[in-house]
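A reminder from the course coordinator: this example appears on the midterm review sheet, so study it carefully.

Given structure:
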């Protein structure tokens, strides 16, 4: 199977807020599987639908374990106050690495591909991956942090 191309900056689809998914169709499930294959092939940690040109609230990543998980309509419902600065890269911003301060611990809500609600507290690298991919769903890129100040920390 040929992998879908990853959209790179300055493509406008990367800076557009994604639409809430109203229904998890077989097309969405297939697309999520394709996203997982791309993450594996690129040896990445996560991927959001806008990076493949679809502005829908769907992302995949290593959010809970060593298994790639797809999340539909994900959101953060609580952030712990402790922040950690870490250098991040992005498949949509090749060659760029930016120091970004993010919450160390977050509480998230999402749905899996079967429509089951997921509520979890995640931390460390998993929390960072989630926040990075959620940024994509909101039209924000790592390069947006390059000239930002602490008040713009996600």
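Designed residues:
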């Amino acid at each position: 199977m040929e992998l879908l191309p990853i959209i790179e900056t300055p493509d406008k689809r990367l800076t557009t807020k994604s639409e809430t998914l109203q229904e998890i169709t077989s097309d969405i499930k297939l697309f999520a599987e394709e996203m997982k294959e791309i993450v594996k092939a690129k040896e990445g940690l996560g991927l959001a639908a806008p990076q493949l040109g679809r502005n829908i609230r769907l992302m995949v990543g290593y959010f809970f374990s060593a298994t790639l998980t797809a999340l539909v309509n994900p959101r953060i419902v609580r952030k712990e106050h402790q922040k950690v600065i870490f250098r991040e890269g992005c498949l949509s911003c090749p060659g760029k690495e930016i120091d970004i301060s993010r919450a160390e611990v977050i509480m998230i809500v999402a749905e899996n591909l079967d429509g089951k609600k997921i509520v979890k507290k995640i931390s460390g690298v998993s929390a960072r991956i989630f926040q990075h991919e959620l940024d994509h769903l909101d039209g924000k890129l790592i390069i947006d942090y390059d000239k930002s100040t602490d008040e713009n920390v996600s």
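The mean pLDDT is 93. Helices lie at 26-42, 124-137.
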